[in-house]
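User: My collaborator sent over this chain with a note saying "see what the structure looks like." That's all I know about it. Can you take a look?
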Amino acid sequence: MQSLRSSTSAKILLSLKDRPLRDRYLNCGLEVPTVAVNPLRSDEMQAAPVMIVIGTPQTAAWAVRQTVVARENDECLAEPVGVVLIGDDRECDLPEPFRVLGGLDDLEIIADRLGIEEALTCVPRAMSVVAGEVRRQLEKLGLRERVLTSVSDVLRGEGEGGSSAEIDPAELLGRESRAVDASLVKKVVKDKRVLITGAGGSIGSELAKICAEHAPSELILMDRSDNALFEIDRQLRTRIPGLQIRAVLHDVVDSEATLRRFTTLHPEVVFHAAAHKHVPLMEDHPGAAIANNLFGTISVADAAMSIGSERFVMISTDKAVNPTSVMGATKRMAELYVRSLASTGSPTRFSLVRFGNVLGSACSVVPIWERQLASGGPLTVTDSRMTRYFMTIPEAAGLVIQSAAIETHEVFVLDMGEPVEILGLAKRFLDRRGFANVVDGYEPNQSDRRTRVRIELTGIRPGEKLYEELAYDAEELTETSVDGVRAWRGEDRPDQARVSQMVGEMATMRRVQEPELVIETLSKWVPIGVESVDSAVSGATIPLKKVGVSGAREDSRVTAA
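Assistant: Without extra context I'll predict from the sequence alone. Here is the result:
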């Protein structure tokens, strides 16, 4: 109750003649000045319910001013006795005689001691979790809630009863997304049996949506998550009723079952998007990363080659370049295996596509920030210097499919523009949502009067880099006929004997429970660098091992492209 008794947060200026409220404040231990600032209230005003305003410092101040304006036209309306603020900030620019009573944690005591009967809530629409918590507390205390929607929420299309308007990822990135070339997509998928692994994921589902719109003879959706598979299957059947769709609940890590599936389904075009992608999680589960990222890829690629599929496209990542994480190293191994198949003389054309982060994908920064904002903040950013390559999901998926129309290369890298500062992205995100930002260790912009949301700098997590690379220094990239798709011009391929040896040794690690042993074996074949705080800025990577699988050029960090 310290906040209630504080002279800075609990003084309320009341007329001594306003006996009912005066007595309430005296009972609550609040100071009641002897200066009368309000006229004698009428009987109707005394009968009005005792009300408080709940909101952020900015929305609460605005709501109080609105009640003052409203009472100028109708004195019978209730006047708030004070303000309860959400969040940690207790500074609020309120007109006299209104004061801050405390925070949400004080609400029960405030309501009990002041006899509060109802609350005027003005919580930003984007803070939906906080608004829900306020509503639950009011219901528990038996207080009536009156909701006041801010003008900014209304102008952003986030009025009461609606949902927060979605942020356009392209607008957040500050650049236009490339349009899909329908003729190239049709060249790849029209009248073909197309199979997509990881079809329920962010990239897999977008691949499925684009392919579905370009007349495949059959679209085969493969995923081991029944919920994700059900949802993309439902969406596509609703969207394109006449399309031949087959939903296959299957884990591609099971190589024998995968071959049986492919023999039955006989896909002509395969997009392999299934993978474990979360960097810190894979540091703790390297065996699972090897099983899914390496052996899941081997399973699907071998099955495609065995049944004579025309094309196989692996979705890779920028984290496979000079990897500093288990996830990146296992994707690098998968790249090496896929490239080794390209020299077997198989009629199946194998290729891989590398790109960085996709904005808006499941568990990427924007959905995470949305959830953090809904809970009132803070937003989390690992390091103020961190940058990432970003692309929208539709643009990335469209370019992946179009790359399959290029006949002359097997390693493709998407042009993702310039790296984006994550801290700057977080600030733009808050700005689009109508909030000001306060970054840990930095002075806030005092001239910005909007509700402030804190950005917390949490520190780099295991396996993360401050920046990412899309290609090795040894790789020579060239433009292709597809805008936004670049290709590696090198002719060197991984040595097949060494790749087979790598696969054989890694097979013994799939179910090993000691992460250190798995990582030690992994780093024998794909050098895993450690990015130090000092070297991270300059981009230096410290190699752990020097053993590679290339029959061609190689240094302490680099295997064949």
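A starting point for your reply to your collaborator: The first strand starts at residue 51 and ends at 55.
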